[in-house]
Amino acid sequence: MRKKWWKESVVYQIYPRSFKDSNGDGIGDLKGIVEKLDYLKYLGVDVLWISPIFKSPNDDNGYDISDYRNIMDDFGTMEDFDELLSEAHKRGIKILLDLVANHTSDEHHWFIESRKSKDNKYRDYYIWKEGKNGEEPNNWGSAFGGSAWEYDENTNMYYLHCFSKKQPDLNWENPNVRKEIHDIVRWWLDKGVDGFRMDVINAISKHPDFPDAPETEGVDYPDFGLVVMNGPKVHDYLRELNEEVLSKYNIMTVGETPLVTPEIAIKYVAEDRRELNMVFCFEHVDLDRDYINLRKKPLNLVELKRVFTKWQKGLEQGGWNSLYWNNHDQPRVVSRFGDDKEYWEKSAKMLATCLHFMQGTPYIYQGEEIGMTNVKFESINEYRDIATLNLYKNEVLTGKRSMNEIMEYTYQFGRDNARTPMQWDDTEYAGFSKVKPWIKVNPNYKKINVKSQINDENSILNYYRKLIKIRKENEIVVYGIYDLILEEDENIYAYTRTLDNKKLLIICNFNEKENIFNMPKDINYKTCKLIISNYEVFENKIDEIKLRPYEARVYELI
Ligand code: NOJ
Question: Cα(42) to centroid of ligand 1, in Å?
């Protein structure tokens, strides 16, 4: 296995709007990130992935870019960015930007031009189609509800927007579009950034025939992704981007790729294919979610193990995994797969242990390291996410579903669960801002905050620090081969990592019951050395370990 710095790194994701407000306008900003660099250094992370910071009208919080070479007003100036980059680099921390290139904002000057007339120079920068029998060109549904096509009176045609109607899809078929994107990427890399997370990058190549998506019962417009993801030319486009730009820099890239299996993923990340370094898969975070009926399904641990194991083994040869529980689109993991009440601290640590000992690059989402939880706002008016607000409009206001159903679904899966302000301390607004923030603070900030954890040796925060440190000091955590044990056990997730003659054993109890772990026959418990655990362990070295609620242990086998 080839050694690379990005395989040995831990990435921390910042959602800048909610990280730290430095200028008292209730919105996080770049200077706020600078203020917290020492904290991030203390935590021990190597790379910051910063969600979009480019100019944007914020229909989707920056995932709708109107100018790729300027900073969003809310977040500061280009000088602030330069300061952030240099202050991060001074501390040995790298910066990954979010490249949103499947679509732009409708306020980008390319689109403003494009919609003016059929013969405008920028017309073909976007995807325009005639309607079919007075209706949309096909049945694709947008990710935020309704059709993925918007009728434009001006030229009597429709444009494609896989996300909101303020996020028109770029036409990557057009070589000028690809060249523009290459130039943008080169421009930022020349500035010194260390790589990109690429937003829905496997959606950039649309099928030339624009076929209907398969009908889905109970859904008016089936998910565009069923036809769009992993399109016919996606690999050509990525290889071209790599050859023209990426390969000339020592950087890292991670693609956000819904609807990929390991067999598909390897085509994006195999080293000899020269496309991307890693992708984010969704299989493990889709297990407990019913997208059609908008409901939570109970998590089946055997399934979760099957999915992770498939990915671990699938990318073992020549690929690389990204490891994550959380991001700005997902609910908080401690509320989701752990217990955010009685076993809040234990389950947060257990989940971290389970993920951080796998093979791949771990991603920590802001607040995860202190066990931030989901939030339940009382009224829909307190939510800010376009996905949630559109659900309300499309489902409740049309009478399709009750308000209760939508609130319940939002409590479980709403993206604002991850977007409440970072909880720095127990003062008003959690130390995030001096004024009322753009979105409400989670009311549990008095209990859950950085200040209360930083000096507590047993805190979740210090547990994450320890996990990162162990990774830094033990190559096996990075490069060791993963093997699942106890495949069918419904309560315990246990696996080993092996590198040369070294072995680690990771044992995680995934629920609040006491569960028995039987030491496998080929492991001599007597010689096992505990390297981290979330409970105090009094070893009796009997081959049967009684695991306490959400207990996690990692042993080195010697
Ligand atoms: C994926 C991003 O993570 C999400 O936040 C965004 O809404 C869509 N892509 C559209 O850019």
Answer: 30
How far is ligand 1, taken at its centre, from the CA of residue 97, in Å?
14
Question: 11-104+175-375+422-465 has which CATH code?
Answer: 3.20.20.80
Supply 138's token pair. 């096909």
Q: Checking phi first, is residue 369 left (phi over 0); if not, alpha (psi -120 to 50) or beta?
A: alpha
For 128, the token pair is 């325009």
Question: Quick one: DSSP state of residue 206?
Answer: -
Minimum-distance ligand 1 atom for the alpha carbon of 163:
10
So where are the chain's domains? 11-104+175-375+422-465, 109-160, 376-419, 481-557
In the residue annotation, 536 being an active-site residue is answered as no
What is the distance between the alpha carbons of residues 146 and 372, in angstroms, rounded to a whole number? 32
CATH ID of 481-557, from 3.30.70.270, 3.40.47.10, 2.60.40.1180, 2.10.10.20: 2.60.40.1180
What is the per-residue pLDDT for 291?
Answer: 93
Residue by residue, DSSP assigns 463-514 as: HHHHHHHHHHH-HHHHHPEEEEE-TT-SSEEEEEEEETTEEEEEEEE-SSS-
Q: In angstroms, rounded to a whole number, what is the distance separating the alpha carbons of residues 126 and 104?
A: 9
Predicted confidence (pLDDT) per residue in 491-509, tens digit: 999 999 999 999 999 999 9
Instruction: Give the pLDDT confidence score for residue 540 in this predicted structure.
Output: 84
Closest protein CA for atom 5 of ligand 1:
329
CB 59 less than 6 A from any atom of ligand 1: no
Active-site residue, selected from the candidate residues 199, 275, 339, 416: 199
Q: Is 488 a catalytic residue?
A: no
For residue 328, the CA-to-ligand 1 centroid distance in Å is: 9
Structure token digits, residue 442: 């989670």
**Spatial contact of 72 and 17, defined as CB atoms under 8 Å apart:** no
Measured from the Cα of 60, ligand 1's closest atom is 7
CA distance 539 to 284: 33
CB atoms within 10 A of CB 239: 15
pLDDT digits (tens, 9 = 90+) for 60-89: 999 999 999 999 999 999 999 999 999 999
Cβ of 100 closer than 6 Å to ligand 1, yes or no, is: yes
Residue nearest (by alpha carbon) to ligand 1 atom 11: 63
Rounded mean pLDDT, 340-356: 99
Cβ neighbors of 182 (< 8 A, separation 6 or more) are 240, 241, 244, 245
Q: What CATH number labels 109-160?
A: 3.90.400.10
Ligand 1 geometric centre to CA of 111 (Å): 19
